[in-house]
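Good morning N.,

You mentioned wanting to compare the apo and holo forms, so I went ahead and generated the holo version with zinc ion. This is what I fed in:
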Amino acid sequence: MSLVTETVRYTYRLRPGVQAETALLAEWNRCRFLWNEAVHQQKTGQRPTLCGLSKLLTEARSKFVWLREGSQVAQQQTLRTYSQSLNHSFKVKGRGRPRFKARKRAFPSLDYTTRGFSIRDGRLRLPAGVSIPVVWSRELPSEPTSVRVYQDSLGHWYGSFVVRRDAEPACEVSGSIGIDWGVKVTATTTDPAFDLPYLGHRKRCAAELDRAQRKMSRRHKTGAAPSAGYKRARHEAAKLHQKGANQNKHDGRVWAKAVVDNHQLIAVEDFKPTFLAKSTMARKSADAAIGAAKRELIERGTRAGRTVVLVPPAYTTMTCSNCSSRNKTRLGLGMRTFRCEACGFEAGRDRNAARTILATAERIRAGVDDVRHLLPPLGDVVDAVRVRNLPA
Ligand SMILES: [Zn+2]
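and this is what came out, ligand included:
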C-alpha cells in the first residue's frame, strides 16, 4: 500500500522562563499594534493590501527603534494573517471583518516561518536570542515548516508546528450514515450503534463555574486594576471552562474516528450554534459538545477522503424518511416521536431526522443540484391547509 503525505499540526507545551516570557509578550504587543493599525486602515476606508501593508512595515521599521527591536518575520506574518482574514471576511459566509485586538482580551499568538525559528538542543530558538524549553510529548515526524507560539486563557504557552507526515490511506469502506444533532443525545445517527450520548461535561462543571464567576464579579472593581483575588478567581473559571472543553474534544475525537472508519458517505446536519445570552446553560453546554464533535468529524472525514455532506437543517424533523413527504405541521419540541401523515411511518424524532438527512445527502450525491425541488415546497403545504378550510 502506498503512503500518502499529509500536512498537520503537532502541538507541544512550552515552558518559557521569565525572560523568554517577557520577550514573547513584548513581541506580541508589537504585532498587536500592527494588527490594530491595519484594522484602523480598513475602518477608515484605506483598503489595506498585503503589499501596501508590507511597504508600510518597512518604512515604520526604519523610523521606529522599538518596532525594529522585534522580529521582522513575526511582524510580517501578523500582516499576512490579517490580510488573509480580511479576504475570508469577504468570501466566507458568516465570517466578520478582522477586529481590534484589545490588550486585555486577545490572547498572544505569534507566527514564525523557517527564517524566524530553529530547534536546537531540544529548545525552540526565536529571534533576539529567545530560547524556550519544549515538552517533547511525541516526536516530530519531519522538519517543521512553521510554528505558531501562543498562550491560552490559563496562561500556558504552546508551540504548534506545521509538519508533513506519511500516513496510510484510509481503508475503502462502503457504509453511509446520517447524523442529527441534539441536546439530550449529542448525535443521533441512522445506526443506533454510532449514537453519541451527551455526557454533560460542561454542565457538570457548571455549578463550579458559576461559583467561580460569581467570585469574579464580587471582586471586580470598575476602573481599578484587577486585584490578585480577582485574577485568582478568573484563573479558576478559565480552568473549569477548559476542563469541560477538553473532555468534549476527547469524546468527539473517539466518536468521530469510529464514524469515519466505518462509513464512506457521511451526511451531517449543518447545525450552527447561536450562543444567545438568553439560552440556558444546558443548551450552551450541549451546543459546545455538538460543535466539538462536528469539527472533529468534518476534519477527520475529509482527511480520510470520505464524502462529507452538510445538509441544511430546515424541515428535516417534519419530513418522512420513509416516503419523503412532509408533514403539514411542525413537530413540537416536546414530541419525541415522528408519525408520517402520508404513509403512517413511525420513528424517534431524531432518528427520523438522521434518516432524512442521509436521504437528502444521497440525492445531492446522485447529482441533483437543488434538493429543495424534491421536497414539497412550503407554499404547497399552506395551500393545502387553506383548501381544506374552505366551505364545501
Ligand atoms: Zn411517510
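The longest helix spans residues 228-262.

Happy to go through it together on a call whenever suits you.

Best,
F.
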